[in-house]
Specification:
binds manganese (II) ion, hydrolase, 368 residues, Creatin/AminoP/Spt16_N, metal-binding, four-stranded mixed β-sheet, six-stranded mixed β-sheet, alpha+beta, hydrolase activity
């Protein structure tokens, strides 16, 4: 199991204890998922002692009822959680000199509180790179959940496309998508705030949704995803409301060609930056390189953005089981934006997509 890999890493790297503070990482190792807000929630793993989960007292019972079979300790709001953690550690082992923390996650204040309990210990160990590396490779169970999330994203697009009409706001369309995901699919929450952008708003990739009203003859960009059994989806489609102009159609078709070429190029052995170049070269040769203002893609799993990053400068060799997005975009300020995005998994000879919504330019008739 993954937790055994963490324990082996501790031994190999001369570390005694891993203090895991990112709730997503805790869920990855334990199967218990919870958002603690400002309270203390951690997994404490040892080189050679039994790991334990530490939670607020009000979460102890649900943690015990979860997939996690190890010990769970809690603290009341009136207690000092760091003293309790220190006591539990000292009951389990005499070796607490070298700690590995998640430097990508643990706040300075929490680090200082923990360090105060072990003033002579060394907290220089960083377990974040190891966790990022093992999370690169998805198991068949994880891939099944990612596909389940993808199917919900495909459903969401249909709701969104059907909600487009003259005068309706971007925010209203996003709200209808989120509502129907809950009502019809039982989705607990989206993997990020649903994005709906019309016309020039779509040239700002992460703007909105705003109170801008949809007008005829605009491109409308959707970027959305859900959480499904702890795994994320993330997909984008751009559609035409009314008759697209030649220029709208041109940038759409270039982006689509770039996205498809990158999908077709995925196989074990290609590097992340080579894959980015496949799409970027097509957009650049068509004269729109300066309008493709972000990397080609990002990893996906329990987090909507994780490793690998599909970006220039990353010579990581892509391998079977890695999951990521392919999402070239063309953003022309004051005019329009196009992005087409699917996530998938590297297979032994290609790329298996998690979303399947059609990519021929969809033209939605004007509905006043
Ligand atoms: Mn994305």
């Amino acid at each position: 199991m993954n937790l055994e890999k963490l324990q082996a890493w501790l031994g190999k790297n001369n570390q005694d204890i891993a203090y895991i503070s990112d709730p997503i990482t805790i869920a990855y190792f334990t199967g218990y998922e919870m958002e603690p807000h400002e309270r203390i929630f951690s997994l404490v793993a040892f080189k050679d002692a039994e790991p334990f989960v530490f939670t607020p007292a009000l979460n102890v019972e649900e943690a015990k009822a979860s997939e996690w079979n190890g010990d769970v300790f809690g603290y009341l709001d009136s207690e000092n959680p760091w003293e309790i953690i220190a006591d539990k550690v000292k009951q389990r082992t005499n070796e607490f000199q070298n700690w590995a923390i998640e430097k990508n996650n643990l706040s300075v204040a929490h680090y200082q509180s923990l360090h105060e309990q072990f003033p002579n210990a060394d907290f220089n160990g960083n377990v974040s790179p190891f966790i990022e590396r093992i999370r690169l490779y998805k198991t068949p169970e994880e891939i099944k959940k990612l596909k389940g999330a993808g199917a919900e994203a495909d459903f969401a697009f249909q709701i969104g496309f059907n909600a487009i009409k003259t005068g309706v706001t971007e925010r209203s369309i996003a709200g209808q998508i989120d509502y129907q995901l809950k009502v019809q699919k039982g989705v607990m929450h989206e993997s990020f705030e649903t994005i709906v952008q019309a016309g020039a708003n779509a040239a700002n990739p992460h703007l909105g949704p705003t109170m801008n009203k949809i007008k005829p003859n605009e491109l409308v960009l959707f970027d959305l995803g859900t959480m499904h059994e702890g795994y994320a989806s993330d997909s984008s489609r751009t559609v035409a409301y009314g008759t697209p102009s030649d220029k709208q159609r041109e940038i759409y078709e270039i982006d689509r060609e770039a996205q498809q070429a990158a999908i077709d190029a995925v196989k074990p052995g290609i590097t992340a930056e080579e894959l980015d170049s496949v799409a970027r070269d097509i957009i650049t040769k068509a004269g729109y390189g300066e309008y493709f203002i972000h990397r080609l893609g990002h990893g996906i799993g329990k987090d909507v953005h994780e490793f690998p990053s599909i970006v220039q400068g990353n010579d990581l060799v892509l391998e079977e089981g890695m999951c990521f997005s392919i999402e070239p975009g063309i953003y022309i300020p004051g005019f329009a934006g196009v992005r087409i995005e699917d996530c998938g998994v590297v297979t032994k000879d290609g790329f298996d997509l998690f979303t399947h919504t059609d990519k021929d330019l969809k033209i939605i008739p004007v509905n006043e």
